[in-house]
């Protein structure tokens, strides 16, 4: 058996393929909605197989992340208790559970009970943010909390608005997902005390740097090389900004007023451009260039056929694929020109939301009603392939996750794993 294993290793054949499959953070390995390691079959089945396993998670819009044969997700068990959960990716067997109280309830019931943030895995740790601002660093092996912060007690509540509301707390709760950069863990926090965007030391939890004194966003930031400069790109409550990688000062900004300062869509990067969506407004392509050692911005184009509010589009093959908020249809836009290439005849957006993933040259669109539509990644015409109805009940607000030959779908309270490779 050892000789056989050695032979497989020399040939580059994995004995346990799932261990190499990674979806370590919000929207995948590169935060762009593309499942880079997907190994889905060339011909998809007309019907989904029975789930490989099912596990109770609780309510919330948190989506699963996968690394080294383990799955991590957050949930709400009720009675104002949020949990951080670890499972075996092959069996669904629970590995550990961390619970903490969360008394916060969004003023708008449509926002859900949370948690809404997706965990981030980095080396031996997983980082999780609760709806009420409880941020924890958990050891993957043991499930023990290594350090934590309570944003509500530490950073918020220092200034009130005219109606008595907290001026810095995200109106419907903390929803952004942690971003790891070297030994820093970065999150939108908000306010004068913490800063809109904050970097914590991954080893100790201490604040390393902070930037901007304004309300934070629900959207998750990312790093990108734009106009020859590495920078952190993300939303505040009212604008998109680029922060210098070295001194964390603002390189550029693009104002974008949003209702209740609710910026939700993550930035999308294409070459030296940032695609911006907000508040069901037309998608905007912002071009960045460097002049006299300064970053200059200009609007390259706008497209009203693709309005974005909660759904982050995906850039692939020099085209943008996204759901139009008003029509609920899938739209393909040429990124070079901003022209619409096609719009689907099928409605894919229930309640204004769908989670999009590109895997194995296909677009997977999971609706809130639990319908999973699959399209070909085709820049000339809309090519529907198959429509599945995964098991489950309630609304599917959690983002779809795809790794290797597996799909992970969360309904109202349960997480399902589907194996398509066999």
What is the fold's blueprint, element by element?
Blueprint: H1 2-11, E1 53-56, E2 65-67, E3 70-78, E4 81-88, E5 94-101, E6 120-122, E7 125-129, E8 134-139, E9 145-150, H2 151-154, E10 179-181, E11 184-188, E12 197-201, E13 207-211, E14 222-226, E15 229-235, E16 239-244, E17 250-255, E18 268-270, E19 273-276, E20 281-291, E21 294-308, E22 314-316, E23 319-323, E24 329-334, E25 340-347, E26 354-359, E27 362-367, E28 372-376, E29 384-388, E30 401-403, E31 406-410, E32 414-419
Antiparallel strand pairs: 1-32, 2-3, 3-4, 4-5, 6-7, 7-8, 8-9, 10-11, 11-12, 12-13, 14-15, 15-16, 16-17, 18-19, 19-20, 20-21, 22-23, 23-24, 24-25, 26-27, 27-28, 28-29, 30-31, 31-32
What is shown here, in short?
This protein is mainly beta.
Keywords:
422 residues, mainly beta, Methylamine Dehydrogenase, Chain H, four-stranded antiparallel β-sheet, globular
Largest sheet: 4 strands, antiparallel
CATH topology: Methylamine Dehydrogenase, Chain H
The structural domain count equals 1
**Rg, please?**
21 Å
Strand elements, count: 32
Strand order of the largest sheet: 1-32-31-30
Give the N-to-C terminal Cα separation: 24 Å
Beta-strand content bin: 35-45%
User: Level of helix content?
Assistant: under 10%
Structural class: mainly beta
Uncertain regions spanning at least 5 consecutive residues: 1-19
Determine the number of helices (DSSP H or I, runs of at least 4 residues): 2
Mean pLDDT: 92
């Amino acid at each position: 058996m050892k000789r056989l294993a050695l032979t497989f290793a020399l040939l580059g054949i994995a004995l346990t393929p799932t261990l190499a499959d990674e979806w370590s953070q919000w929207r995948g390995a590169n935060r762009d909605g593309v499942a880079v390691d997907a190994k889905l079959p060339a011909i998809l089945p007309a019907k989904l197989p029975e789930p490989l396993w099912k596990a109770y998670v609780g309510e919330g819009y948190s989506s699963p992340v996968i690394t080294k044969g383990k799955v991590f997700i957050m949930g709400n068990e009720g009675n104002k208790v949020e949990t951080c959960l670890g499972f075996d990716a092959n069996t669904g067997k629970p590995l550990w559970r961390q619970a903490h109280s969360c008394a916060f309830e969004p003023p708008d019931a449509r926002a859900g009970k949370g948690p809404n943030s997706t965990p981030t895995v980095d080396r031996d740790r997983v980082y999780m943010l609760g709806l009420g601002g409880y941020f924890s660093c958990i050891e993957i092996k043991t499930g023990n909390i290594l350090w934590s912060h309570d944003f509500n007690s530490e950073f918020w509540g220092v200034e009130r608005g005219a109606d008595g509301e907290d001026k810095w707390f995200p109106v419907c709760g903390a929803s952004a997902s942690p971003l790891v950069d070297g030994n820093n863990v970065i999150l939108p926090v908000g306010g004068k005390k913490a800063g809109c965007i904050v970097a914590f030391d991954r080893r100790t939890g201490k604040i390393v740097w902070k930037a901007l004194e304004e309300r934070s966003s629900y959207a998750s930031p990312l790093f990108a090389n734009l106009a020859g400069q590495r920078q952190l790109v993300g939303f505040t409550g009212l604008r998109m900004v680029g922060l210098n990688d070295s001194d964390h000062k603002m390189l550029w900004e693009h104002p974008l007023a949003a209702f209740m300062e609710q910026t939700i869509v993550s930035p999308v990067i294409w070459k030296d451009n940032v695609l911006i969506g907000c508040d069901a407004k037309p998608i905007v392509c912002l071009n960045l260039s460097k002049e006299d050692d300064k970053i200059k911005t200009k609007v390259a184009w706008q497209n009203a056929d693709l309005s974005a509010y909660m759904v982050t589009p995906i850039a692939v093959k020099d085209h943008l694929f996204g759901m139009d908020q008003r029509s609920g249809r899938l739209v393909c836009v040429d990124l070079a020109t901003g022209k619409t290439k096609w719009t689907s005849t099928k409605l894919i957006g229930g309640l204004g939301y769908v989670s999009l993933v590109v895997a194995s040259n296909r677009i997977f669109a999971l609706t809130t009603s639990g319908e999973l539509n699959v399209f070909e990644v085709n820049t000339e015409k809309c090519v529907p392939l198959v429509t599945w109805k995964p098991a489950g009940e309630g609304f599917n607000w959690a983002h779809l996750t795809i790794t290797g030959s597996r799909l992970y779908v969360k309904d109202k309270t349960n997480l399902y794993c589907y194996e398509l490779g066999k």
